[in-house]
């Protein structure tokens, strides 16, 4: 049996473009099934959101300007709704806590659990305007989803979750990834970044599927 193409998928849970990309990832998994293996990774875009946004958007209205930008970005994507409170009154200080908790969950309860919970956390933020940088909010969401909160806390307490998160952050930095979302296909044979359309993603992955990774290059 042919080995699946590996897609290293880097994102930040607070990134609206990663929220929009969620449906494309879901569709790729559905259409290509066992031909691909998506490995979910996190990178630091909003690790210091409380400083980054008002600083970078100082000349464009600060948090309010960024809030309008997020609303405008999602406007064309009805399957990626965005609550009007985001960044106006609901202003998470950092994406690091949700990333950390998701790593702890994946380590203790499996990668599939981590993937499922990541979508739940994104929905809680973008649709329900939950302040997902707060640990008590995250632990409540985990409990509501039926996962074991105590094992996640143990992974945070002993540092294993932090080590896994730092590995993601450091790998993203080592590869000079520009931001969220980023798709690294087949060990770097193709790197796609930003608001990449579904058909473009599918075409690039199918091209890799047709071309063995050990095939000699003509150039």
TrEMBL record:
* SUPFAM superfamilies named in the record: Thioredoxin-like
Q: Which Pfam families match?
A: DSBA
| Record domain DSBA-like thioredoxin: where | 7-202
Record's InterPro entries?
DSBA-like_thioredoxin_dom, Thioredoxin-like_sf
Name of this chain's protein: Disulfide bond formation protein DsbA
Say which species the protein is native to: Colwellia echini
């Amino acid at each position: 049996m042919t080995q699946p193409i590996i897609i290293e998928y880097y994102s930040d849970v607070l990134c609206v473009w990663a929220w929009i990309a969620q449906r494309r990832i879901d569709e790729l998994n559905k259409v290509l099934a066992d031909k691909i293996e998506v490995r979910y990774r996190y990178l630091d875009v909003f690790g210091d959101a409380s400083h980054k946004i008002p600083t970078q958007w100082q000349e464009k209205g600060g948090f309010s300007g960024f809030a309008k930008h997020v609303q405008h970005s999602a406007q064309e994507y009805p399957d990626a709704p965005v609550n009007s409170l985001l960044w106006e009154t609901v202003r998470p200080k950092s994406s690091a806590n949700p990333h950390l908790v998701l790593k702890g969950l994946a380590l203790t309860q499996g990668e599939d659990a981590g993937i499922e919970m990541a979508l739940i956390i994104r929905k809680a933020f973008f649709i329900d305007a939950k302040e997902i940088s707060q640990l008590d909010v995250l632990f409540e969401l985990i409990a509501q989803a039926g996962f074991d909160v105590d094992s996640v806390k143990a992974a945070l307490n002993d540092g294993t979750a932090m080590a896994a998160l730092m590995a993601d952050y450091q790998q993203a930095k080592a590869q000079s990834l520009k931001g969220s979302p980023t798709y690294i296909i087949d060990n770097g044979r193709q790197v796609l970044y930003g608001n990449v359309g579904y058909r473009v993603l599918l075409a690039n992955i199918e091209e890799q599927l047709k071309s063995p990774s050990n095939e000699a290059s003509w150039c």
